[in-house]
């Protein structure tokens, strides 16, 4: 981003604005009404407006050049970050949505040279692809509808067709290769949902077949990177997280879509491994960051542990393991890109509490197979759920259990 800021004024100005807003939210947090805070905000607003003016100058271009496209997508990412650190959820959604829409309209991933570098551009195309799809995944992980133009086919282009098996050159390259796959797989899962036989589901296209060979190649290259001797001590954190993400991807690629209420049970050992890896990663973060390790970050464009822990907390039927995941999610400092991680915590807790209601005294069902504190029966599993963000830290959650769907009950709101 800093390299691009040296070339594109439209990127330089929001970088300055970003730095100013970050200073307001940290250095002036205890005295936001001070003269220095106000003057810093005025500076941030001026830089934001300057970036808008540079963007407007290129609007008459019927076909943006590769440099224009790179610049606009980077500005969208910066504007998303600006909105996020100010906790302006609606603006963060708007800027993210605009960037994602342009990314697919331009088919940005198709225009790279064999070296991965687009003509006259600053960054490798893979860097932009991974950043945009990472932002997209942050929406998908929260069941949010952001852009109606998306379909499962769009990720085929992002994935490419070549499946080389030589080692990755770095952990960052491994992340850039995994992120589009992760986003596409999450998208497929969002379209499936949990269903019971009573809903009479129509056959869905299982787009996972597209990802399986690509993921197998990724895992081979990742294992070779482990053995290559290229890694440095600072790489240990991202390698741990990439290993955990690969376990999550493998679960999504193997789970049975025809019986999602109970089919996650066979991955209990995978869920245990995920929680153990996240505990290890938290310990490393605590050693590196000291007292700051337990503080929630306002924004992160890096990989997040929140999605993995939420995966365990919402899909595992083992009450003890779910609570371990939620407890770790409460402590983890890595936020989920543009959203406060406390939203993920609330979603996980709300789903678990609803599923366990059938075990409460007075709520017993003669046909219920729930074991209090241990296993949730298929009928009481949350079948369909969605999240509507109200503010940066607050959300409305709509849910229906398998039994609700079968009996035609309305959504439960929390």
UniProtKB/TrEMBL annotation:
Keywords recorded for this protein, A-Z: DNA-binding, Metal-binding, Nucleus, Transcription, Transcription regulation, Zinc
InterPro entries hit by this protein: Transcr_Regulatory_Proteins (IPR052360)
Secretion signal span: none
Domain of life, per lineage: Eukaryota
Record's keyword annotation contains Metal-binding: yes
UniProt GO molecular function: DNA binding; metal ion binding
Protein name as catalogued: C6 zinc finger domain protein
Source species: Metarhizium anisopliae (strain ARSEF 549)
